[in-house]
Amino acid sequence: MSTDKKTKTIVAKIPEGALSEKWSNYKAQQKLVNPSNKRRLDVIVVGTGLAGASAAAALGELGFNVLNFCIQDSPRRAHSIAAQGGINAAKNYQNDGDSVYRLFYDTIKGGDYRAREANVYRLAEVSNSIIDQCVAQGVPFAREYGGLLDNRSFGGAQVSRTFYARGQTGQQLLLGAYSALSRQVHKGSVKLYTRREMLDLVVVDGKARGIIVRNLITGKIERYSAHAVVIGTGGYGNAFFLSTNAMESNGSAAWQVYKKGAYFANPCYAQIHPTCIPVQGEMQSKLTLMSESLRNDGRIWVPKKKEDAQAVRAGKLKPTEIAEEDRDYYLERRYPAFGNLVPRDVASRAAKERCDAGYGVGSGLAVYLDFKDAIERLGKDVVETRYGNLFQMYEKIVDDNPYETPMMIYPAIHYTMGGIWVDYELQTTIPGLYSIGEANFSDHGANRLGASALMQGLADGYFVLPYTIQNYLADEIRTPRISTDLPEFAEAERNILERIERLMSIKGKRSVDSLHKQLGHTMWDFVGMGRNKKGLLKAIDEIKQVKKEFWSNVFIPGEGLDLNVELEKALRLADFIEIGELMARDALHREESCGGHFREEYQTPEGEALRQDDKFNYVACWKYMGEDKEPEMYKEELKYEFVQVQQRNYK
Amino acid sequence: MSSYKYNNAITNNMEKTININLRIWRQRGPKAKGAFESYKLDGVSTDSSFLEMLDQLNEQLISEGKEPIVFDHDCREGICGMCSLYINGHPHGPDEDITTCQLHMRKFKDGETITIEPWRSHGFPVIRDLMVDRSAFDKIIQAGGYVSVNTGGIPDANAIPIPKPVADMAMDAAACIGCGACVAACKNGSAMLFVAAKVSQLALLPQGKVEAARRAKAMVQKMDELGFGNCTNTGACEAECPKNISITHIARLNREFLKAKFKD
Fold this sequence. Notes:
The complex is a heterodimer.
Chain A: E1 2-4, E2 9-11, H1 22-29, H2 35-38, E3 42-46, H3 50-62, E4 65-69, E5 87-88, H4 100-110, H5 117-137, E6 162-163, H6 169-187, E7 190-193, E8 196-204, E9 207-215, E10 221-225, E11 228-231, H7 252-259, E12 264-265, E13 270-276, E14 299-303, H8 306-313, E15 327-328, H9 330-334, H10 344-359, E16 367-370, H11 372-378, H12 380-398, E17 407-416, E18 419-420, E19 433-435, H13 453-473, H14 487-506, H15 512-527, H16 533-553, H17 565-589, H18 613-616, E20 618-623, E21 632-637
Parallel strand pairs in A: 3-4, 3-11, 4-7, 11-19
Antiparallel strand pairs in A: 1-2, 5-6, 8-9, 9-10, 12-18, 12-20, 13-17, 14-15, 14-16, 16-17, 20-21
Chain B: E1 17-26, E2 35-45, H1 50-63, E3 85-87, E4 90-91, E5 113-118, E6 126-128, E7 131-132, H2 135-142, H3 164-174, H4 181-185, H5 192-204, H6 206-209, H7 212-225, H8 236-240, H9 248-263
């Protein structure tokens, strides 16, 4: 990494050579660490999702001494577990024209030409090894009767390259990584710290050397040191309060490293997933996703006539009573080439467009996802085999049978493409600090394709970081174990204790959740699916109000140095508020529409996203400048040498 | 600009609310004496999930300046295995094939009294209130619940065909979410269904078959060591498993365990 303060630019250390040779060239030239030195080097990995668990396991296998932290009671519960649909790879088992290049190209295009070519090509290159690895671990992927692996299609692709394990692919891949991790714990190369939450990064002489965590059971503050630190703590979608993320998913580790000098890239790129169960009530705590795989066989529609939509909303008409010719299969109508399998950002905006125009069903903010034709074509049994667990989940939540009446769905916050800025080696702007998986910004540009999050998490953890981190650690072999008695650790701990004390002593009137919901409303209304200048300015203003209210009127019962769930939530919310502001700020500065970032001022006459390549063909990297100071923006220019940048077309 | 609309039209019903009474187990720590406390909660939407009902109760407690009830939860979509409540005498409550987070208040009646306890088992000590320590499950997996392969240098994923019914059966077992309902349901506090699910999944697949017997022995030994009880085939675990894991997997575990014993 190198930054230029004068021009406010940053470069990513991309290796020379042809696209297909960059990763091989890098590996051929990088420094390695010999086995006896590996044992003497400590690596902290924060997070045990697909990225964290696979990285900790792979580093442990290599012989490094790994300290692995997770917030839940077991590494197996990280939120990767909830990914449903599948994982992409360029195996071309279906002989349908897939290749490493095509997976690369689809991902770049899907990301609306806002991702780094070299990273994405490497991702596509290692994708095949991931599938091999998972099968060897005993991941029970779906198979054909001949005994070979089955595939299905996901959005943004015209081939079937998605491997899956029923509707529980994330669970099975995570349990695979968890098993590899457990094996290393047994061997003693990885030490596991559960129910711990990272509260700060410790930097010594400019290098990442440790973390401060809160033991969530005792409430005590603990110090851990290492030669390098890896952040794999997922995304910050819960800034919106309601999202498909788990309740404990948070952006705090990313935010702490940002405040310690790591840059935060493209914070405004948030993915809104088109097929989630709609919001139903005031006490709703989270939104549930219905897998994108459902769009393989389900057809999305709304009534063609406004009066039918009104009658459905009033409960006077059932969707099954609406005749075929009175249904508007709007994705098939607008995008005949990709139909129901357009990428997520496109599908979400199209749903919003129909609902805003008055054709929504349910509360008015829902569209149908209908399996009538699939059941007629394939039979109920086949549909049940493919999606049974999803249908059951829907029925339990909504109390409606999707085999008989169409599902109702609406877009919801799902994933954040933005995150900690990393270079080609996945290293942040702080030497010795790495970031992997959803926590970094690296591979998805402005929109992630379905089944690519699992691919990226495992690519980073199994096949990229274990190589690139050695290039750094090779220069650390003479550094003895880092002491946690260093003044930098003491100071970081003191700051945390002061922060906790300050929060506990506010003793105001508002609960943490009530403030989080307030933030969520602002985020969804103004930093959600449609954004504009006026709204974003309003959002920044409202977020500042929430911040003021939080720091003067929050109430946290209990003790600071004890098990205290409300305090945990408060510490996370304090960061979400600031993340929300940076998201709004980034969205305001990016005067174009691209991928998940839709600025209403920039659209084609047909309502498609309109990029401004001459002005915004860069990664926006935000640098923290201090409390209540405006952050500075550095640019990483995106150079497209191998693909031709054009307007995305799914028609 | 779209905004959240808080109404209940997605089920095309008028929103219904109920008033309930709650008896909830409260316990400061592993060694502290616990007791039931009673709460009254009004205006619970029947579309709320069970955990959202507890959120509502906690908001009420916080507004009264009291400490909220501690319970484990995370994904709230039935897959992470974190939620672990014993409701009216059943792990994960009265509904079939779901976790606590997927249980909805429409399953309860207005005026009903609902009793909520933590998982009760020697293997899972209470941490606070309804939160228990399930780290024993991790220790059992660490003892052998894996295929011993390193990262990289692996043959092609399609090199070994696996019959679909076998892969499907392995997937049935692999669906275990490690919540511990099987242990909580068992009068002996046995973890056999949990252990069997992992042993069976890996024993069915050619990749895991190589060390199947060794794995079964190591995991069962660890389970015994950690204070879980014996299996007496009552089938309570299967009946309460939110993921429908079948006790036939216990039979496969026993076969692998015997094989290992013969080898000794």
